[in-house]
Amino acid sequence: MPEQPQPFDDGRAINHTGAGGGTDLAMDEGESLEKTPGGPEGTGPDRKPRSLWSDAWHDLRRNPIFIISGLIIVFLVIISIWPQLIASGNPLDCDLSKAQEGSQPGHPFGFNGQGCDVYTRTVYGARASVQVGLFATLGVTLLGSVLGGLAGFYGGAWDGFLSRITDVFFAIPVILGGLVLLSVVSNNSVWPVIGFMVLLGWPQLSRIARGSVITVKQNDYVQAARALGASNSRMMLRHITPNALAPVIVVATIALGTYISLEATLSFLGVGLKPPTVSWGIDISSAAAYVRNAPHMLLWPSGALAITVLAFIMLGDAVRDALDPKLR
Amino acid sequence: MAEAILEVRDLHKHYPLTQGIVFKKQVGAVRAVDGVDFDLAAGETLGIVGESGCGKSTVAKMLVNLERPTSGAIRYKGEDISRLSPRALKAVRRNIQMVFQDPYTSLNPRMTVGDIIGEPYEIHPEVAPKGSRRQKVQDLLDVVGLNPEYINRYPHQFSGGQRQRIGIARGLALQPEIIVADEPVSALDVSVQAQVVNLLDNLQTEFSLSYVFIAHDLSIVRHISDRVGVMYLGRIVEIGTDAQIYDHPTHPYTQALLSAVPVPDPEARAHRERIILTGDVPSPANIPSGCRFRTRCWKAQERCTLEVPLLAVPAVFRLTDSPAKHDSACHFAEEKQVVPPEPGADGSDGPDGAGGSGIP
Amino acid sequence: MLLEVRDLHVEFHTREGIAKAVNGVDYSVDAGETLAVLGESGSGKSVTAQAVMGILDVPPGKITQGEILFQGQDLLKLKEEDRRKVRGAKMAMIFQDALSSLNPVLSVGDQLGEMFQVHKGMSRKDSKAKAVELMDRVRIPAAKERVGQYPHQFSGGMRQRIMIAMALALEPELIIADEPTTALDVTVQAQVMDLLAELQRELHMGLILITHDLGVVADVADKIAVMYAGRIVERAPVHEIYKAPAHPYTKGLLESIPRLDQKGQELYAIKGLPPNLLNIPPGCAFNPRCPLARDRCRTDVPPLYEVTESPVPRTSACHFWKECLHG
């Protein structure tokens, strides 16, 4: 049979002329309704079925932005697990006599204010950023989409209550909240920072999830399942979640980048991670004072941070394009 | 008439209109369905026609329990199904299934055709043992005229008409007795509509189904229905067999509706009498007193403002034998033939015979 | 001739390939005449109209061939600026969905008045008076009071009247109405079609009515062009086509619609589906669905055969039109 036009998220005929009334270019398949297996070109009907997820994957694989950002992210994840792979030194192994020295053999990025090797510290710094980014996003997404999804599904008083709560959280300025809340925690690890981000971040995701669930809930296929006697859990898991997930994933991927930069900001302000934890934010903070005489100390960690954030945001963009063909 | 399989009595659905965010106060109600009665006999097709906003889709949703009535009863084989426990309801649902209007939103885009048609069996595992399900789904695909090998495809790989067939197959899966079809062909192209209408016709005979067929297209309703009810602003204003309604309408709204339908025959242009109604349908939040059609009716008199006309055989026809003797909710019911008689058939009881006699 | 479309071809570039939406359309309409363009979705009827109006989205759309002569002048050769002057002033379009065609944040009076301010340089006050006059003309009750209201405060039928008023504002010579009543209820549809037909008579405009509804066509059209897969398959005066169609597609359509005045048996159904525009069948595009199809139909694209010459020429793009007409 002829190449089938796909994917159109909801299967609708694509509308080539957005404005100005329905054009009638329906892209129906040219198959005949008669029960002949295969069409004129003889491709069998059991050709590999393509779900919307596999269509999205098909698109992503052809998107250079996805490939570049994906490679950067894979690299980051690998070095955050095994930094020894590319950095043989110890990030805490410092020699004050070499403080602020520039690039030299064996130490391509030079030394920082305490005489630690900038290259090693930049490599080891990835771990904190990736940890904070991934876990904060995971926590925010789980909490936000469960709460928001339930609010969207059940509506009523629970929805009203949750909406007010999210309003309250939206009103809290993130940096100010971080300065206040994190300064009382003395635990020296990434978890308080992650916890803080989840606490302030979930309302954003819950709003997206709620809106997405409400949109999907109105579709006739959910009504059809209800008319068949499907239970609430069945409707939620089988019909609503898979269809409501796309916007949540998109927002979460983009948010991941912002959590990484938020961690750096908080560490810069001295309330995020604290030494001896190695983090780009801490290094940027300590390098800021010497930016005139030793700019290399600032350049490398902030460059690494910028590339990482950019990679995640680009990934989010690519994922959105793939999951939402209507935006194209 | 055969025994009624479904009886609908005084059905109401009011949506409250509220003001305020925290302390909600009801300030009124949208009376989407406002007192609907009808019977559905086993094996028959009841068509319900009306314009948008008349409440016909809300009736459909209540029949399949997607909406709970505000008041009134829906009795399936004598049992009121509108107030059942969730468990009892699940059992009843097997017997009353729905076909939706929009073939694009009624199929889950993330499920294969096999999963969509097979889902009823997962919800009601007693209908088909696990091993037999794939075969059953393929049989259903075959019944609705699709290639059984398409079982692993996704909805977006099908055209509108094919998707509607998938929706019909899903509706048939549990072997229901009643199918409520809400505008099942209005989203389809003309040449595909006929295919789907014929399919519904054939399935009715094959599986002895009863249909409630809801549509705004009067021609299609006539084609498929044994009896027809005309709805206006939440109520049935006239109900009868298709010949009674189409050839001998007595309610002015039915007459206006029928006369407004464009007839695909240019020759009819010159000698057709058309009743063009003035104004718009009033809001269901603010229904006129007395007869709800009076604001657009050319016959309206004071009595129409004061007295709600009942859906019953009008007094003037009660003792006659004419086809005009059917339920019509109008104080001044009078027969008027608005659809030109079938070419070829001689109008045995023309408009003039009954028309003059009826005026009180 | 007011408008003549000659051998128009339009393509769309999509991700899957080139969709041939319009493949050589010829039609014409004269002042005071109503041409109905009938077709299903994908037939190219709306795309042709958008090409005539000059509102085709380019890209993905592209006019690859053809002429659009308006009062003898080829619109496709005009500069965009001159084209814009023709649009609105000399030809206007009415869309199916009046709600999305009106700006929700401007009052209807402002939107109607804007036409006069932009094209005629009228003052705000004068243009408002003109807006009220137009609303009266399309019989919107209490026009004076309602001129300041917003689109959502009007019912569907009233909104469509506002669209008609807008199209008529500058007294164009040609109106293109793309499914103007499809979204409306039958009783309102009758009101709007009556209004449109009456205004057309009064102002002696040409009207191109694009629709899939054979009933509406029978009610108002003078002549009809049936489109299928981007081509015209039959052109005829309206009375003749309903009596005796000369193309199997037209014939199938006429037989497949249920009639209000008849309780038929099984409906005739055209088998199969409209073709995929990315892959139009060779030969006659209708051949896979046609009961008369034979070998020649699968290889030779049928030209428009002349069926009769009498007063309005009648043509059919079927090799076997004689069989269809008489059989």
TrEMBL record, chain A:
Residues annotated as domain ABC transmembrane type-1: 126-316
Main location: membrane
Transmembrane spans: 65-82, 132-153, 165-184, 244-262, 298-319
Cell compartments where the protein resides: Cell membrane
Keyword Transmembrane helix among record annotations: yes
Segments for region (Disordered): 1-50
UniProt keyword annotations, A-Z: Cell membrane, Membrane, Transmembrane, Transmembrane helix, Transport
SUPFAM superfamilies: MetI-like
Membrane topology, as annotated: Multi-pass membrane protein
Transmembrane in keyword set: yes
Source superkingdom: Bacteria
Family: Belongs to the binding-protein-dependent transport system permease family.
Protein name: ABC transporter permease
Source organism (scientific name): Streptomyces exfoliatus (Streptomyces hydrogenans)
